[in-house]
Amino acid sequence: MRIRLDGTYAEIVHAANKIRTILPIGSISPIIPLHERPHTWRVFLDTAPKRTGSRWIT
């Protein structure tokens, strides 16, 4: 599952930490500034870890 987070830097870090306590995070994209809104950033979280063969790798 892919989750998009928009907000200030502190809001994104707080939300990502809360999500990590509930779901396994496979990867986090680089933080991208949104030019149309000042002090706002966007990041994507992939919650499903990579799968190789029949076992999950965390």
Write the layout of secondary structure elements.
Layout: E1 2-7, H1 9-22, E2 27-28, E3 32-33, E4 41-46, E5 51-52, E6 55-56
Antiparallel strand pairs: 1-4, 2-4, 3-4, 5-6
Walkthrough of the structure:
The longest helix has 14 residues, at 9-22. The two termini are 15 Å apart. β5 (51-52) and β6 form a beta hairpin. Strands 1, 2, 3 and 4 form a 4-stranded antiparallel β-sheet that branches. A two-stranded antiparallel sheet has the order 5-6. It is of the alpha+beta class and 58 residues long. The protein is built from 1 helix and 6 strands, in the order βαβββββ.
Write a concise synopsis of the structure shown.
By secondary structure, the chain is α+β, with helices and mostly antiparallel strands. The chain has one helix and six strands.
Please trace the helix and strand order, writing H or E for each element: EHEEEEE
How would you sum up the major sheet?
4 strands, antiparallel
The low-confidence runs, each spanning 5 or more residues with pLDDT under 50, are none
Average residue-wise pLDDT: 85
| Span of the ends, CA to CA | 15 Å
Structural class: alpha+beta
Q: Considering DSSP H and I runs of 4 or more, what fraction of the residues is helical?
A: 10-25%
Q: What Rg, in angstroms, do the CA atoms define?
A: 13 Å
Specify the number of helices: 1
Q: What proportion strand?
A: 25-35%
Report the strand count.
Answer: 6
